[in-house]
Amino acid sequence: MLARRSCRVWSLVCVCAAVGLSGLDRAYCAEAAGQFVLHARRQVETSAGSGRFHALTQPVEWPAAQTAVVICDMWDEHWSPTATRRVAEMAPRMNEVVAEARRRGALIIHCPSDTMPFYEGTPQRERARQAPAVETAIPLERWCKLIPEKEGKLPIDDSDGGCDAVPQGKNRKAWSRQIATLEIHPEDAVTDSQEAFFLMKARGIRHVLVMGVHTNICVLGRPFSIRQMVRQGQEVILVRDMTDTMYNPRMAPFVHHCTGTDLVVEHIERHWCPTVTSTDLIGGREFRFSEDQRPHVAILMAEDEYQTEITLPAWGRAHLGKEFRTTWLYGNDAERNDLPGLEALETADVLLVSVRRRVPSTAQLAMIRKFIEAGKPVVGIRTASHAFSLREGAPPPEGHAAWLTFDPDVLGGHYTGHHGVGPKVAVSLPGEPPHPILAGVDLAQLQGHGSLYKVNPLAISATPILLGTIPDTPVEPLAWVYTNKYGGRVFYTSLGHIDDFAEPAFQRLLLNGVRWAAGLRTDG
User: Fold this and answer.
1) Domain architecture of the chain: domains with CATH
2) Interatomic CA distance for residues 208 and 200, integer angstroms
3) Are strands 107-111 and 67-72 parallel, antiparallel or unpaired?
4) What is the side-by-side strand order in the sheet with 325-330?
5) Run means of pLDDT, 10 residues per run, the chain, 524 residues
6) DSSP-assigned states of every residue in 9-20
7) How many other C-beta atoms lie within 10 A of the C-beta of residue 228?
């Protein structure tokens, strides 16, 4: 019976592939066949030793019958009140995800550590307990600590325990069971030990979807979770919007709590396994905690003149983490016109562009156009004025596309070249009062270290907020705001030279530009 069913399942999957279905049709076909279609994101170094990573998403298909969903330590209570609150907020969405995975045929393994007495004698507990032990190449430990030679160190300091509120008896065992919101069905299993792996082996399960808390502690370290399952040869994926981190924003790197979670998720994607979101199983929008009101800014970098692939991330790490969710998009080091990872624009709220003379693939430019033509905000620096065109209108290679009018269409500018490298650019106001973007910007300390761009005349509705001058040349707009023809808010500045980023005044100007574009206050 099982063999005949497997044959039918795989036949249906093959038919779907053969007829060329894609998108929702392919997902529906795979679901009908007992498959999971997952959009797995991983971090891949742009080139060896660069320290910069592409966030690449690739679809994978897993047979549901060979998949386990591991729910890690979703306890009824935690000694940290904020951890307890976040678990309670996430649990209803998680229960929907688990119900759908169960419906498709996955094995659900509930793993609320240190609470097994509560489940003693239940069929679900006995199911795990009775799984026959198997030999493992690497011992399954009660706890797998950080492995420095593989993963370096965590990107957050959780040495204080990670509670961002007043702890209620720090490190006490506050939990007695899994939170009741998560339903345990007759066919599920309950364990908190290596039994989870034994049960997977007994069922022929090779794929593991992990969700629960906390990424920097239990989700990485438990015997049924990421480090140990990967080391045992299982294919593991973390559901990144169904997790949380024990992180206190008063500790390094001093960012929003949810940014702390993002940083640990990126660490996992670099060193351990890919991640997906719950939308792959139940659709809708990915889950975000109610406290997570951060706008999502995508920062696109692909230019050879000013090293913004170095300066922008350094600036962002220093300034964005408290207020923004950030995605870094780098040009392909091996292929100048390839801009990997643009799928992030699907959920981005603001696009910051630092690109020079790249003509991406037709599909990639379509993703950029879709974002901008939806009326979403854009911030441009320096070479963004000639981001997606070749010199003198040269045609792009086959399969690639230019956006020759990106500057006037999107930024409201009129770039025609630049003055020669020479004196620093003096900065002045076009009038009073100064624009809100200039709040907290020390204009006495602001100057341009690169050549002055020729950008006149701006679009009629563009508003200059800074002017730049060098001796014996006409004054040029140095920064302006604009609402483009798609309805999107725009801030652009021709500043962005590598030495500009060393100046606190420029750092604040750019931060305020991103804040303003996102609709946030600039005087904070």
Assistant:
1) 64-165+173-282 (3.40.50.850), 296-518 (3.40.50.880)
2) 9
3) parallel
4) 325-330, 296-302, 350-355, 378-381, 489-493, 476-483, 463-469, 426-428
5) 35 40 48 84 96 96 98 97 97 98 98 98 98 93 96 97 85 93 98 98 98 98 98 98 98 98 98 98 97 98 97 98 98 96 97 98 98 98 97 91 97 94 92 94 96 96 97 96 98 98 98 98 90
6) HHHHHHHHHHTT
7) 25
pLDDT at 169: 74
Report the sign of the C-alpha dihedral through residues 354, 357, 361, 366, in that order: positive
DSSP letter (8 states) at residue 208 = E
pTM strictly above 0.70: yes
Which residue type sits at 270?
A: R
Dig out the tokens for 236 from the structure: 């593991």
> What's residue 271's pLDDT?
98
CA distances from 309 to 51, 332, 359, 401, 475 (A): 11, 11, 18, 23, 30
Look up residue 381 and give its amino acid: I
In the chain, the amino acid numbered 321 is: G
Give the torsion through C-alpha atoms of 266, 269, 270, 271, to 10 deg: 120
The DSSP output letter for 47 is S
Q: Tell how strand 207-213 and strand 67-72 pair up.
A: parallel
The distance from CA 375 to its chain's CA centroid, rounded to whole angstroms, is: 22
CB 199 within 8 A of CB 67: no
pLDDT of residue 17: 41
| Residues 353, 355, 359, 360, Cα dihedral to 10° | -60
At which residue do the structure tokens 């290679």 appear? 397
What residues contact residue 366 under an 8 Å CB cut-off, 6+ apart? 401
User: 3-state DSSP call for residue 63?
Assistant: strand
Q: Counting beta carbons within 10 angstroms of the beta carbon of residue 20, is it exposed (0 to 12), middle (13 to 18) or buried (19 or more)? A: exposed
In angstroms, rounded to a whole number, what is the distance separating the alpha carbons of residues 214 and 211?
Answer: 9
Q: What residues pair up with 118 in beta bridges, in sequence order?
A: none
pLDDT at 32 (0 to 100)? 53
Length of the chain: 524
Q: Is the dihedral of CA 130, 131, 134, 136 positive or negative?
A: negative
CA 462 to each of CA 11, 168, 205, 479, 491: distance values in angstroms, whole numbers, following the listed order: 59, 54, 59, 10, 10
By the 8 A CB rule, do 116 and 125 touch?
yes
CA distances from 274 to 59, 80, 111 (A): 11, 28, 21
CA distances in angstroms from 368 to 150, 344, 406, 492, 496, listed in the order given: 35, 10, 11, 17, 22
Contact criterion met (CB below 8 Å) for 301 and 312: yes
Other C-beta atoms lying within 10 Å of the C-beta of residue 210: 28
Residue ranges of the alpha helices (H) in 105-224?
116-119, 123-129, 148-151, 195-203, 218-221
The span from the CA of 50 to the CA of 417, in Å, is 31
Q: Are strands 378-381 and 489-493 parallel, antiparallel or unpaired?
A: parallel
